[in-house]
Amino acid sequence: MTETVSGTVSGVGGRPGKRPRKGLKMKRVFTTPGVHPYDEVRWERRDVVMTNWRDGSVNFEQHGVEFPDFWSVNAANIVTTKYFRGAVGTPQRESSLKQLVDRVVGVYTRTGVENGYFASEEDAEIFDHELKHALIHQTFSFNSPVWFNVGTRSPQQVSACFILAVDDTMESILDWYKEEGVIFKGGSGSGVNLSRIRSSKELLSSGGTASGPVSFMRGADASAGTIKSGGATRRAAKMVVLDVDHPDIEEFIETKAREEDKIRALRDAGFDMDLGGKDIVSVQYQNANNSVRVSDEFMRAVEAGGNFGLRARLTGEVIEEVEARSLFRKMAQAAWECADPGLQYDDTINDWHTCPETGRITASNPCSEYVHLDNSSCNLASINLLKFLRDDDSFDVATFVKITELIITAMDISITFADFPTQKIAETTRAYRQLGIGYANLGALLMATGHAYDSDGGRAIAAGITSLMTAVSYRRSAELAGIVGPYDGYQRNAEPHKRVMRKHAAANDDLRTLDDMDKTLHTEATRQWQECLRLGEKNGYRNAQASLLAPTGTIGLMMDCDTTGIEPDLALVKFKKLVGGGSMQIVNQTIPRALRRLGYLEEQVEAIVEYIAEHGHVVDAPGLRPEHYEVFDCAMGERAIAPMGHVRMMAAVQPFLSGAISKTVNLPESATVDDIEQVYLEGWKLGLKALAVYRDNCKVGQPLSVAKKTSEEVPAETSAETAEKEPIVQVVEVARPTRRRMPNQRPSTTTRFTVGGAKGYMTASSYPDDGLGEVFLKMSKQGSTLAGVMDAFSVAISIGLQYGVPLDTYVQKFVNMRFEPAGMTDDPDVRMAQSVMDYIFRRLALDYLPYEDRAALGIFSASERAAQQRGEDPAALQDVDTAALAQSAPIESGKSAPIEKAQPAPVEAKPAEGPSAGQVVPVAVPEPRRVGASLESHQGRTADAPLCMTCGTKMRPAGSCYVCEGCGSTSGCS
User: Which member of 57, 363, 736, 852 has the greatest number of CB atoms within 10 A?
Assistant: First the structure.
């Protein structure tokens, strides 16, 4: 796409009469001379309407937005709601993807011209057209801050990742609080290493004992929580790191696990968790990801079973020795309990550091993919790999090289005009110009080409792509250094930077290829590394860092990617939004392509796809050979990829990345502490820079399990033997329970509730002679998936109550169930709920169960808890009219309808009856839409992910974070 040539600077940022200056000579790849890239696309107008899932109201509406006809509804909705600038309903509001791309690319092109990046104005125009073509065709995307800020009146912030620094002074600690707050306010995240702060086992200059870093984490956590609560769609994202040799390391390791225990124990024991109460303020450290920075010395001590010294922060002397294995076990135990801490492998990170003369790498951003100098930032861009898969299933290497050149050029230009949240970050980033090119859709690419994610072939392709991407990035960085100069800190770090380049090239030489695709990738990567080393020796490098693998949450959806970052596919069936509203369940479109690649005939493909649509997996699919099952393994489901499969994939690509990888290794709920130890140990041995784990449902008080029950045991006798012994067939009439239907008129109570900011309504109806018989729940807009699920759940519970299932049985099953939304409620009797279900059944228990039954379950009202704290008997508060109870019908208070003897007539199976005519009850009735069955029912297990607080859709993992496929909101990463 480009060549480096000499050209006059007149018209490209220089002054006439000056000596000629080098510039990039651009070549067209995607575009045609004389034709604007917009004119080669068919555009269409759409309406975007987003509703509030809490009350069904419309929270965003814009009509007539313009997008290419091949953009999905979801991608268009996300771009319209998140990236279009200007007040809705005003002429200033952007209404077309053309306007958005023009706004952003215009700034890039003008800045490139003004700073001498291009040889001529014609080259600048080619750059402009090629960049626009790539963006509107979803070939790649910049990270979210670019779309938010570039070309607007806001500060031109382009970076999504920040690393701060904290010294052992109160002034520095307070600056940390302030700087984090500024970054959180802008919707970005930051990381920090607190190891310079003296431990609680060391003395202050005044003679007192230091507070220690964990105590200062409390203040930062409260600040992050406050800023999170002030934001509408995302939480504050932060990373806190502590070195393994810090004297407070054990306290740091156990911090979050202990808080999780406290939440469960206090709530279950009936303690007052009201706002302002003494218990709720003790629940802390919940707003950060925690990581331990481990050294090779420590890991070798773990292997050898030796001791390890914890060192004073000021003097460096060993003040305590601990058993390395015992400390390592505590890390794994805490991660088993609450997913924290993760590990960062310090010596590996700094061995690949291009700028060690400036300072060590001590921390990372919240998702652990950006690892570089303190007080620095990184802007990201990700390539959609599936765009380079040709119809013949070969990878378009030449075009991939050209798009990588284009992106690196644009990303470097962005640092020239970018603004930053603090002066220290601005100085470091402009001096070292860190970039973070990466990719998305790797999982989809591997499946489409018939490669299993956890296979040598899959890893060879991933390694080849990553090596080629980084080689081209640094080669282009060396070319830019010859045009506009190397980064300011290069001369100081020239030798270590070139050493790291040689390490990358050597790792590429060691790659083992298996088939034509990875051989082609490896051949080109080798050529690019050779050219990179040659140009780097001559010119130096423009950028201290070039590549990493980010979560690609929102921008992955913007590019209509099936998979994010380095992740495999989440499941084989997904939901697709429809233009008219609603959604439908579809089988991933890469599956038919993969089956054809594997040699299956068209009728076999259709049969297998139909089977997957029904079952959600490929096991026993008609005609599918068992040896091909692994191609369709996913992160979840019947055939979930093994934890070490994820680790091996990370290890395959890590040697070719400047930074690290945002990815969490998921383990099943049955995983042991030993399993986590093994993952952490193998991550170190395989050369990873950082690693985090998550054991399914590890953060719940009562695990939510959907494990399939085994078949009922059958008699040992064979059917033939049984038949010989049964000459007479006898029909036995089995007594069955009878449904006691609700009368047309019955008393009911409607409760409005809020859990963790999510609003809903519950209507509970009773039999006239007492006893709960019906529950209706309303959350989200009619016709939405969430509303449909709540309706179905209400019907199921209501029918169960009417068939005689005791209410206390439901309460026992659903209380303490934990999932998002969770948190504070507006109910004085239930101030904290672990989920909507937890709240609902606590409220029903309080309203319909007698005190004795509730006391056995640990459920008390606010007045009862207050009585307990005063030393009084809460039972004395119960005003029970025993005479009225004696005269009432046989249905006891709080009980469901009794089980009656079966009647001869068959029971008519109908849904639970709704309220009688004339009653105004806020019950959502689903509109007829093409909504498939629950995705999780097809996967055979639940995704332990939160609900989106914006639209109510269950989020999906994206690296170390979560992204909402409904609206594009993320759990903290841009």
Answer: 363
Closest to 173 measured CA to CA, from 214, 225, 229? 214
User: In this structure, what token pair is assigned to residue 136?
Assistant: 């509107």
List all residues 6 or more positions away from 747 whose beta carbon is below 8 Å from its beta carbon: 765, 766, 768
DSSP string, 343-411: EEEHHHHHHT-S-TTT-------TTS-----SSEEEEEEEEEGGGGB-TTS-B-HHHHHHHHHHHHHHH
Q: Which residues contact 70 (CB under 8 A, 6 or more apart)?
A: none
* Helix and strand numbers, DSSP H then E, in the chain: 29, 25
Closest CA to 944 of 339, 343, 264, 442: 339
Structure tokens at 404: 């990588």
Q: Cα separation of 267 and 505, whole Å? A: 56
- DSSP annotation of 974: -
E strand or H helix that includes residue 51 = strand 43-51
Picking from 85, 137, 974, the residue whose alpha carbon sits closest to that of residue 555 is 974
Q: Measuring CA to CA, which residue among 244, 429, 463 is closest to residue 355?
A: 429
Given 77, 149, 365, 441, the catalytic residue:
365
3-state SS, residue 563: coil
Kindly list the domain boundaries of the chain, sorted by start residue. Answer: 1-137, 161-351, 572-633, 731-939
Cα gap 559→225, rounded to integer Å:
31
Catalytic residue among 180, 337, 369, 774: 369
What residues of the chain score a pLDDT lower than 70? 1-21, 52-56, 186-187, 205-207, 222-236, 263-264, 267-268, 272-283, 285-287, 576-585, 699-736, 782, 869-871, 873-954, 966, 971-974
Could you give the C-alpha distances from 567 to 220, 462, 529, 641, in angstroms and in order? 31, 11, 26, 11
Residue 583 has φ and ψ, to the nearest 5°, of -155, 170
Structural contact between residues 382 and 305, judged by C-beta atoms closer than 8 angstroms: no
User: Which pLDDT score is estimated for 787?
Assistant: 82
Mark residue 363 as left, alpha or beta (left: phi above 0; alpha: psi -120 to 50; beta: remaining).
Answer: beta
Are 755 and 833 spatial neighbours (Cβ–Cβ below 8 Å)? yes
**Options 355, 367, 634, 973, the catalytic residue:** 367
CA 866 to mean position of chain CA atoms:
40
Contacting residues for 433 by C-beta, under 8 A, at least 6 apart: 412, 415, 487, 542, 543, 544
User: What six digits make up the tokens of 693?
Assistant: 């784990």
Q: Is 143 tagged catalytic?
A: no
Separation CA 804–CA 901 (nearest Å): 12
- Pairing mode, if any, of strands 237-243 and 573-577? unpaired
Q: Is the distance from CB of 346 to CB of 299 less than 8 angstroms? A: no
Q: How far is CA 940 from the centre of its chain?
A: 20
What does the pLDDT read at residue 736?
65
Is 66 buried (19+), middle (13-18) or exposed (0-12) by CB count in 10 A? middle
Beta strands in 504-579 (DSSP E): 573-577
Concerning whether 367 is annotated as a catalytic residue, the answer is yes
3-state SS string over 800-839? HHHCCCCHHHHHHHHCCCCCCCCEEEEECCEEEECCHHHH
CATH topology assigned to domain 161-351: Anaerobic Ribonucleotide-triphosphate Reductase Large Chain (3.20.70)
Where would I find the H helices in 563-703? 590-597, 602-615, 643-653, 673-685
Note if 369 is an active site residue: yes
How would DSSP label each residue in 470-499? HHHHHHHHHHHHHHH---TTHHHHHHHHHH
